Amino acid sequence: MPVDRSGTNRLPWPSLARVAPNVQVAGGVAAILGAAAVLFAYRRSVATTPRTMSDEWREATVKMDLAKERVAGEPVEVNPIRHAAKKKL
Predict the structure, then answer these.
(1) Residue 80 sits in which domain range?
(2) Are 70 and 57 within one domain?
(3) pLDDT (tens digit per residue) in 56-76
(4) Number of folded domains in the chain?
C-alpha cells in the first residue's frame, strides 16, 4: 500500500485505518446517539417540574376550560382528547 504524504489523509487514531469506512461511520453515529441518550437521561433526572405541571394547576385549567361561555347549549370540553384517559367507560 502506498503511503499518502499529501497530509490530507490523516487520522487522529491510526489504528482506525484498518477498520472499514462504513464501520467507522456506523460507530460514529452510534457514539453520538449514545451520548445524546446519556445527556437526555441526565437532563430528565435533574430537571424540576414546572409550576404548570402541578395537580392544582391542572384542575384549575380544566375548570376554566369547562366554564367558558357558549352561545348555544351546555359548556363543552375545549380539548376532549386531553381528558379522554380520565373518562370512565
Answers:
(1) 51-89
(2) yes
(3) 888 888 888 888 776 666 766
(4) 2
